[in-house]
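Here comes my example:
=====
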Amino acid sequence: MRFSKLLTLVWFVLIFSLLGCRSVAETIDRELHLNLGSEPATLDPALATDPGSQQIARMIFLSLVETDPATGAPQHGLSTSWAVSTDGLIWEFKLRPDAVWVRFNPIGEKIEVKRNVTAQDIVYSVRRVFDPRVGSGFAMTIAPILRGAQELRTANPQKTTDADFQKLFDALGVQAIDDTTVRFYLTKPASYFPSIVSTWLVRTQPRESVEEGGVVWTEPGTLWTDGPYLLKSWSHGREIVLEKNPNWYDAASVRIDTIRFTMIADTATALDEYRKGDLDTLDPYDGLSTDDYDTLKDDPVLGKQLQIVPTLCSQYYGFNTTKAPFNDPLVRKAFTAAIDRETLVSSVVKLGDPARDFTRAGVYASADISDTAGIPFNVNQAREYLKEAGYDGRTKRLPVITLGVNTDDKLQLIAETVVQMWKSNLNVEVRVSALDWKSYQQTLREDAPQIFRLGYCAYYPDAANFATVFQSKSPANFTKWISAPYDQTVDAAAREIDVTKRIALYRTAEKSLVEENTVIAPLWWSSRATLSRPELQRNYAITDGYERLETWGFQ
């Protein structure tokens, strides 16, 4: 029977992305000068994990799904629409028919159109991600969600024959139905699957170019590309030059013909280059230090060019819920309510937003930043929580508490600041225990201290990536908190396709985590500071390595 008869489809149509409704204002024809920071480790999409490699790969290879820069919401890229089965296990994507592979020859600067991009390219690209002979750095993270991916990823290349590899490829949960239709088979419902597709799973790779070019298949002249830009030149260790691809399906909307990426690792040197006018922005590499930010924000010229950009990183103090006194949620609430996050961020952290939730507000399927979930700073309420827990300060006092952190000057200053807040507001003694990162990680896995510091950076821009961290079986849940209702709510959100209902479910889970049970004390959401020329029209990506440069322009 046909797919449409077997399944009830939910179709997602983002008309604006198909129409290419970008600014059509008159622009200045000039090159864009950016800094990658260092030589990209690779331009192979199956291997790219660092932001520099991802940024270049994003510009020259199409993804099945793209992301909204500000929120990470999935948008159409190579796909024109997608559908999901009623059980949430089968996803089908329709491809646009006008995307083509091209090869740029630096000799004579000729562009050769090779063929159309097809669903078979998607299948090949996904297979490469999980092929252990390729060695993708993120295959382990996303393999559990795709049928057959774990089996393929863990195959021993020395003991697996070509015939056996072909069987594993055939069993992998990706199938080309025809040239413009590709289907994925999941191991569990995942309403956030398009977000995973947009960031890690499906950036197209051309089989002919890979197999014919071998280890140098990503070099100019050998490389086939299908994105908005071509790889014009790559002077290793010095510069990468991208040129507008006139055969890209939406080439008419691209406003900058040439992008030059230099490779300046030292951020102070990069800032000097910006001051001299040799860089148009400090992105996509790194950003300003907090000291530079403090200096530049008062600069009469550069202060107006500063931009604070959200990231996908959330910083928090976790409570080991199996250790007294933090096995009592009232004590956890008291310690959380005694933290003045506003003062902490403004006086010490500098680059960030005070957080009462764990999930970064504004990311796709999350609550709005105006949401009031969480425990607010309130000294009187903090003391009341302690009294309710039986610690009246006279007949019963809290013992000395241990706060674990990893060795870092800034993190230890933050810890000392919070410890002083606890001393002043709760009259409690807290000892800071600092360990090197490797030892600290081991301590968290084996026996986390009563309170511990951690940060989490989501690897795809969806609220699901935050919510799963504190599920009972999550390897990242060092609080040892086990909650069947929380797990069930997060699982229900993974099955829910309607984004409004997903938001409500994730909000329920978040409220349980940070308010009702107060398993962690959210501190701040990390941000970064950058500079951009006033004449540069651009957006700012919340995900590292995903700047939408094809939408930028000068005016």
About this structure: Residues 81 and 94 are 5 Å apart (CA to CA). The chain has a mean pLDDT of 91. The longest helix spans residues 409-426.
